[in-house]
Amino acid sequence: MVSVREARPEEFAPLGALLVEAYAALPGFPSPEQNPAYYGNLRHIGALTHKPGVQLLAAQDDLGRLLGGVVYFADLAHYGAGNWGDTLAGWAGFRFLGVGPQTRGTGAGRALTTACIELARQQGKAGLVLHTTRAMPVAWAMYERLGFMPDPALDLRAGTVSVYGFRLALGRAGGGL
Fold this sequence. Notes:
Layout: E1 3-6, H1 12-24, H2 36-43, E2 54-60, E3 66-73, E4 91-99, H3 108-122, E5 127-132, H4 137-145, E6 149-150, E7 156-158, E8 161-169
Protein backbone atom coordinates (compact mmCIF):
# COMPACT_ATOMS: atom_id res chain seq x y z
CA MET A 1 0.00 0.00 0.00
CA VAL A 2 1.20 3.52 -0.83
CA SER A 3 0.79 6.45 1.55
CA VAL A 4 1.65 10.12 1.01
CA ARG A 5 2.85 12.56 3.62
CA GLU A 6 4.93 15.70 3.88
CA ALA A 7 8.63 14.88 3.47
CA ARG A 8 10.87 15.30 6.48
CA PRO A 9 14.04 17.43 6.13
CA GLU A 10 16.27 14.36 6.47
CA GLU A 11 14.50 12.92 3.40
CA PHE A 12 15.15 15.92 1.15
CA ALA A 13 18.51 14.60 -0.14
CA PRO A 14 17.29 11.01 -0.72
CA LEU A 15 14.18 12.33 -2.48
CA GLY A 16 16.34 14.60 -4.63
CA ALA A 17 18.51 11.64 -5.63
CA LEU A 18 15.41 9.57 -6.38
CA LEU A 19 13.97 12.34 -8.60
CA VAL A 20 17.25 12.72 -10.49
CA GLU A 21 17.26 8.96 -11.11
CA ALA A 22 13.60 8.99 -12.19
CA TYR A 23 13.98 11.84 -14.69
CA ALA A 24 17.34 10.63 -16.04
CA ALA A 25 15.73 7.26 -16.82
CA LEU A 26 13.02 8.78 -19.07
CA PRO A 27 13.63 7.98 -22.75
CA GLY A 28 13.73 11.20 -24.76
CA PHE A 29 14.11 13.47 -21.72
CA PRO A 30 17.26 15.62 -21.50
CA SER A 31 20.07 14.03 -19.49
CA PRO A 32 21.75 15.62 -16.47
CA GLU A 33 24.62 16.66 -18.76
CA GLN A 34 22.21 18.29 -21.22
CA ASN A 35 20.27 20.20 -18.54
CA PRO A 36 22.37 20.55 -15.38
CA ALA A 37 20.25 23.40 -13.98
CA TYR A 38 17.05 21.33 -14.06
CA TYR A 39 18.75 18.36 -12.42
CA GLY A 40 20.26 20.72 -9.86
CA ASN A 41 16.69 21.74 -8.94
CA LEU A 42 15.74 18.09 -8.61
CA ARG A 43 18.84 17.21 -6.57
CA HIS A 44 18.13 20.08 -4.13
CA ILE A 45 14.34 19.72 -4.19
CA GLY A 46 14.04 20.44 -0.46
CA ALA A 47 15.24 24.03 -1.01
CA LEU A 48 11.85 24.85 -2.55
CA THR A 49 10.15 24.29 0.81
CA HIS A 50 11.54 27.62 2.03
CA LYS A 51 9.07 29.41 -0.23
CA PRO A 52 5.64 30.27 1.21
CA GLY A 53 2.96 27.65 0.59
CA VAL A 54 5.36 25.10 -0.91
CA GLN A 55 5.29 21.50 0.34
CA LEU A 56 7.43 18.54 -0.66
CA LEU A 57 5.32 15.41 -0.48
CA ALA A 58 6.74 11.89 -0.26
CA ALA A 59 5.14 8.59 -1.24
CA GLN A 60 6.19 5.58 0.78
CA ASP A 61 5.32 1.89 0.96
CA ASP A 62 4.25 -0.10 4.03
CA LEU A 63 7.90 -0.57 5.01
CA GLY A 64 8.54 3.18 4.96
CA ARG A 65 10.65 3.10 1.78
CA LEU A 66 10.51 6.24 -0.35
CA LEU A 67 8.83 5.59 -3.69
CA GLY A 68 8.60 9.10 -5.11
CA GLY A 69 7.86 12.72 -4.47
CA VAL A 70 6.20 15.89 -5.75
CA VAL A 71 6.34 19.59 -4.98
CA TYR A 72 2.98 21.29 -4.29
CA PHE A 73 2.64 25.07 -4.75
CA ALA A 74 -0.31 26.68 -2.94
CA ASP A 75 0.57 29.95 -4.69
CA LEU A 76 1.53 29.93 -8.36
CA ALA A 77 3.74 32.98 -7.75
CA HIS A 78 6.33 30.44 -6.55
CA TYR A 79 5.66 27.81 -9.23
CA GLY A 80 8.64 28.90 -11.30
CA ALA A 81 7.39 28.04 -14.79
CA GLY A 82 5.44 30.46 -16.96
CA ASN A 83 3.96 33.80 -16.06
CA TRP A 84 0.17 33.86 -16.08
CA GLY A 85 -0.33 36.92 -13.89
CA ASP A 86 -3.84 37.22 -12.53
CA THR A 87 -5.22 34.66 -14.98
CA LEU A 88 -4.67 31.89 -12.44
CA ALA A 89 -5.35 33.77 -9.21
CA GLY A 90 -6.66 31.29 -6.66
CA TRP A 91 -5.09 28.28 -8.39
CA ALA A 92 -2.41 25.91 -7.04
CA GLY A 93 0.05 23.73 -8.92
CA PHE A 94 2.51 20.89 -8.66
CA ARG A 95 5.83 20.13 -10.31
CA PHE A 96 8.68 17.65 -10.24
CA LEU A 97 6.51 14.57 -9.69
CA GLY A 98 8.70 11.51 -9.93
CA VAL A 99 8.67 7.85 -8.95
CA GLY A 100 11.80 5.74 -8.73
CA PRO A 101 12.36 3.55 -11.80
CA GLN A 102 12.26 0.37 -9.69
CA THR A 103 8.94 1.30 -8.07
CA ARG A 104 6.93 2.48 -11.09
CA GLY A 105 3.57 0.80 -11.35
CA THR A 106 3.00 0.77 -7.58
CA GLY A 107 0.40 3.57 -7.66
CA ALA A 108 2.80 6.08 -6.13
CA GLY A 109 2.40 8.60 -8.97
CA ARG A 110 -1.37 8.47 -8.71
CA ALA A 111 -1.23 8.74 -4.91
CA LEU A 112 1.03 11.82 -5.14
CA THR A 113 -1.25 13.44 -7.74
CA THR A 114 -4.43 12.80 -5.75
CA ALA A 115 -2.72 14.15 -2.61
CA CYS A 116 -2.07 17.41 -4.50
CA ILE A 117 -5.70 17.52 -5.66
CA GLU A 118 -6.89 17.03 -2.08
CA LEU A 119 -4.56 19.73 -0.74
CA ALA A 120 -5.90 22.17 -3.34
CA ARG A 121 -9.50 21.28 -2.42
CA GLN A 122 -8.81 21.65 1.30
CA GLN A 123 -7.29 25.06 0.66
CA GLY A 124 -10.29 26.18 -1.40
CA LYS A 125 -8.31 26.57 -4.62
CA ALA A 126 -10.13 27.23 -7.89
CA GLY A 127 -8.02 24.62 -9.65
CA LEU A 128 -4.70 22.92 -10.09
CA VAL A 129 -2.03 23.33 -12.79
CA LEU A 130 0.77 21.01 -13.85
CA HIS A 131 3.25 20.65 -16.69
CA THR A 132 4.56 17.53 -18.40
CA THR A 133 6.38 16.47 -21.55
CA ARG A 134 5.96 13.86 -24.27
CA ALA A 135 8.77 11.90 -22.56
CA MET A 136 6.26 11.14 -19.77
CA PRO A 137 3.41 9.29 -21.55
CA VAL A 138 2.37 7.23 -18.51
CA ALA A 139 2.05 10.35 -16.34
CA TRP A 140 0.30 12.23 -19.18
CA ALA A 141 -2.34 9.49 -19.48
CA MET A 142 -2.78 9.32 -15.69
CA TYR A 143 -3.36 13.09 -15.48
CA GLU A 144 -6.04 12.88 -18.17
CA ARG A 145 -7.72 9.92 -16.39
CA LEU A 146 -7.83 12.05 -13.23
CA GLY A 147 -9.63 14.84 -15.10
CA PHE A 148 -6.78 17.19 -16.02
CA MET A 149 -7.30 18.88 -19.37
CA PRO A 150 -4.52 19.99 -21.72
CA ASP A 151 -4.44 23.78 -21.97
CA PRO A 152 -2.32 25.21 -24.81
CA ALA A 153 -2.39 28.62 -23.08
CA LEU A 154 -0.11 27.07 -20.43
CA ASP A 155 2.36 25.44 -22.85
CA LEU A 156 5.94 26.66 -22.83
CA ARG A 157 9.45 25.82 -23.96
CA ALA A 158 12.22 24.96 -21.52
CA GLY A 159 15.36 25.10 -23.61
CA THR A 160 14.81 22.54 -26.35
CA VAL A 161 11.94 20.78 -24.56
CA SER A 162 8.27 21.43 -25.29
CA VAL A 163 6.41 21.50 -21.98
CA TYR A 164 2.63 21.06 -21.98
CA GLY A 165 0.30 22.65 -19.45
CA PHE A 166 -2.69 20.90 -17.91
CA ARG A 167 -5.38 22.21 -15.60
CA LEU A 168 -8.04 20.73 -13.35
CA ALA A 169 -10.85 23.08 -12.32
CA LEU A 170 -12.06 22.42 -8.80
CA GLY A 171 -15.18 24.55 -8.99
CA ARG A 172 -14.09 27.10 -6.40
CA ALA A 173 -14.57 30.84 -6.67
CA GLY A 174 -11.62 32.95 -7.75
CA GLY A 175 -9.54 32.85 -10.88
CA GLY A 176 -10.00 30.70 -13.89
CA LEU A 177 -9.16 30.06 -17.47
